[in-house]
Design a protein that fits this description.
Strand order of the largest sheet: 1-2-3-6-7
Structural class: alpha+beta
Distance between the termini: 35 Å
Number of strands: 7
Order of helices and strands: HEEEEEEEHH
Number of helices: 3
Radius of gyration: 16 Å
Length: 185
């Protein structure tokens, strides 16, 4: 679902891995469809843009709410842009000669810097509601499908590095922390 004036919000700081418990637990369902929710979505688009991201979940800016935004190309290079409130993810069967899943590099604004290869479904859909509580759906392939899966993972309390082997996860978190060690393991 597109949102008019989507970059008119205020960029908020990105929560990094281990720094806030909201990033590591299932987010709360949205029940209030009001101006506060609209402001949140606008701020999420602005935060994603400021951080040069392709997707952002509400808990990545410290908000315990099942909302994400996306602005990411699909397998055909077409832009998939929108937001979903209370999303439910469905991994879809491949069409024609599409692969069932794709191994590609993945990164995260909450683990700044490093990337790692991670297998994700090539085709996915999220169903949820818009700012007025009306049903919406986003279906995507390729990188955009990866983004849908990544953002719903966030809302379930899983950061992509949590899906990696422990040794690799620890190395990536140390790399993201840098010499000052700002990211807790």
């Amino acid at each position: 679902m597109r949102l008019f004036g989507r970059y008119d919000g205020v960029a908020r700081p990105i929560v990094t891995y281990g720094s806030n418990p909201v990033l590591h637990r299932r987010c709360a369902e949205v029940t209030a469809f009001d101006d506060g929710l609209r402001r949140l979505v606008l701020d999420m688009f602005a935060s994603m843009e400021a951080a040069d991201g392709v997707g952002l979940a509400a808990n990545q800016i410290g908000v315990d709410a099942r909302v994400f935004v996306i602005d990411c190309p699909d397998a055909d290079g077409e832009d998939v842009m929108g937001y979903v409130v209370n999303p439910v993810l469905t991994v879809l069967e491949p069409v024609g000669d599409e692969p069932a899943e794709e191994l590609d590099e993945e990164g995260c604004l909450s683990v700044p810097g490093p990337y790692a290869e991670l297998a994700r479904a090539f085709r996915a859909r999220v169903d949820g509601v818009d700012l007025e509580g009306k049903p919406i759906s986003i279906q995507a392939t390729g990188m955009a499908a990866r983004c849908l899966q990544h953002e719903v993972d966030h809302l379930d309390g899983t950061v992509y590095v949590d899906r990696l082997p422990a040794e690799l996860r620890e190395r990536l978190l140390a790399e993201a922390a840098g010499p000052g060690g700002d990211l807790p393991a």
